[in-house]
Amino acid sequence: MGADHEQILTVVNSAMNARTYGDIMTLTAGAATALRGAATLRARLQRITTFALGEEKGEGGNDSHISTALNFVATRGELLKRTRKGDLHWKQVSLYLNSKKKCVISEVHNDIPAWPKREREDKAEQRAYFGIKTGDGIIEFECESNGDKQMWMDGMQYMLNCSNNIAYF
């Protein structure tokens, strides 16, 4: 989360070129909106982490693994996604429980076969694949390693279990 060099230069140039009170008010409003957005994202991440830690107490040594897996899926990760037509696209992926308790993911699939023409030459550690089932169908993703896949699987499965156990009032 953050701005790249180009965005910062644009903002600084806009501030230096401000000539009227309206220009300054526009820049101030934009900055306030950006700060509110950052605070909202920070609070969401903190709420997810707190929720996960509170739910997982008392299961022995599994606490740190679940916390790590939840943090792994809550912070964005870059995964390769395969479309229904077979095209491959890099996507920033994160998972969180929203405030409306609406679940768009219904299942996590561990048994996705390897994609054709995606084998590594070094064969040291093979890529790993998983899928998530949504209302639109199964979305397939590729991970760099089995360890990454397991973190995604554990974090998503735990969050699905938590969302299914939340009482609706």
In short:
With 169 residues, the protein is an alpha+beta fold.
Task: Please describe the structure with a list of short key phrases separated by commas or semicolons.
169 residues; alpha+beta; PH-domain like; 2 domains; five-stranded antiparallel sheet; 4 helices; 5 strands; 47% helix; elongated; VAN3-bd-like_auxin_canal; FORKED-LIKE4; VAB; PH_pln
Topology:
Elements (H helix, E strand, L loop, with lengths): L4 H12 L4 H35 L6 H13 L2 E6 L5 E6 L11 E5 L18 E7 L2 E7 L2 H20 L4
Antiparallel strand pairs: 1-2, 1-5, 3-4, 4-5
Helix pairs in contact: 2-3, 3-4
Organism: Hibiscus trionum
Pfam family, one: PH_2
Protein name: FORKED-LIKE4
Explain this structure:
Strands 2-1-5-4-3 form a five-stranded antiparallel beta sheet, with helices on one face. With 169 residues, it is α+β, with helices and mostly antiparallel strands. 47% of the residues lie in helices and 18% in strands. Strand 1 and strand 2 (88-93) form a beta hairpin. The protein has four helices and five strands; from the N terminus they run αααβββββα. Residues 52-59 have low confidence and may be disordered. The protein folds into two domains: 5-49; 63-165, PH-domain like, CATH 2.30.29.30. The two termini are 34 Å apart. Helix 3 (62-74) crosses helix 4. It is elongated and about 60 Å long. The longest helix is centred in the N-terminal third of the chain and has 35 residues, at 21-55.
